[in-house]
Amino acid sequence: MRRTTRRAAVLAAAVLLSGVAAGLPAAGEPTPRPATGSAAGSASGTPDPHAPVGGVVPGVEGAAAERAAGPAVAGFRELRRTGGPRGTAGRGTAGRGTAGNGAASDRTHNFWGVMPPDAGAGDGMVATHSVHQDLRISHQEDFLYAPTSKPGNDSCVEVVTSYSRHFGPQVWAWDWCRTGNLAKQVNVDSDFLDTYTTTVNGHRAYTVQNVRTNAANNTWTAYLHNYATKKWDVFFTSSGRDRTDAAYGWDVFEIYSTVDPATGEGHYCPASVGKPFESSDIKLRKGGSWAAASPAESPIVPPRPDPDAYQCPSLRFQVRHANDHWVVEH
Hints:
The protein is α+β, with helices and mostly antiparallel strands. It is 15% helix and 36% strand.
């Protein structure tokens, strides 16, 4: 009862904020493969979500994945301690210009992007996410999870692009149904770039498809598009109850940042100049068909972000096409 009440309250808040026109969630597919439907790949060259399944994305799993990802895992777990991005946004904030010492209590958590409430989220999401192999953050306790995405309707897998000081960028599969922890990670190295990325608007980007593959036991499978084979490689699969208890999905830019006393800005701010965080061709699956995310069921949250609240006053938050393409850059 408590979970139902909480989900209803969060959904009501999202509808009030964004005027969401609700739709019905679609049923899942019976086998672990991308669903078929009427929509094809977009004119911009987005991979066809109905392309066949290929192999398996190589990577490190379980406890070894947590060790390979380092402190960024603990930071992400802290952000998700009460569910989705909304749960801890703004907590432990040190305002711009505060001489924070890097302690956890001085951190700012904030996010921006698409958040479809469950009623309109369908049972799958596909998006193309930017990735920057050379992006490092100077402070050891600051992290970027950008973009990070998880479909609505009790999805089990969140796919995260993680940046930190300790390692180069990594792509994660976070298991929200079985363990509530990082389940798999892959480094964004030359092999990953050659296999799983293409060039989008002048930078590298990978495409993730995350769909319910068995409705009976709530199995979800995340795939990465293999640009060499033109197939979808399995990244991670999980099933069971969604531990986030969130009544919405998300595809967002997310920070966990402290202020550099020398600049009055977050440590990630100078590191990310000229490196846009972009999610394009966001689609939701409903009734077996794919459709571009739209303002009706996929509101931008928050609708009017203040760059100072992200410890980076030069940031620009842009909706390039409502609401299936967003960019955060400076």
